[in-house]
């Protein structure tokens, strides 16, 4: 019984922390302290995960698909920036 209560309280505190971070982030954006590009960059993996979850239907496969997609995107972007530097584009 005590384990269930402790687990519930712990998850509740984590939930309150996440809500606090979201509120703080929204206030920071409204005050102009954060750049929208940085926020969009941080949201991309969550959007990819949501799309993958909608397609495959399981969390594990969606997480693996998201990881593979983000790794492929990282490699392509590294190649693109390397070519830009090499070709002086």
Explain the layout of strands and helices.
Blueprint: H1 2-30, H2 36-56, H3 59-87
Helix pairs in contact: 2-3
Give a brief description.
The chain has helices at residues 2-30, 36-56, 59-87. With 89 residues, it is mainly α.
Give structural notes.
The chain is built from 3 helices and no strands. The radius of gyration is 19 Å and the shape is flat. The model has no long low-confidence stretch (mean pLDDT 89).
Structural class, from secondary structure content? mainly alpha
Broad shape: flat
Biggest sheet overview: none
Strand proportion: under 5%
Q: Could you tell me how far the N terminus lies from the C terminus, measured between alpha carbons in angstroms?
A: 64 Å
Number of helices: 3
Poorly predicted sequence stretches spanning 5 or more consecutive residues: none
Alpha carbon gyration radius: 19 Å
The helical percent reads over 70%
Q: What would the average pLDDT be, to the nearest integer?
A: 89
H and E order: HHH
Number of E strands: 0
Task: Throw out a few tags for this protein.
89% helix, single chain, 89 residues
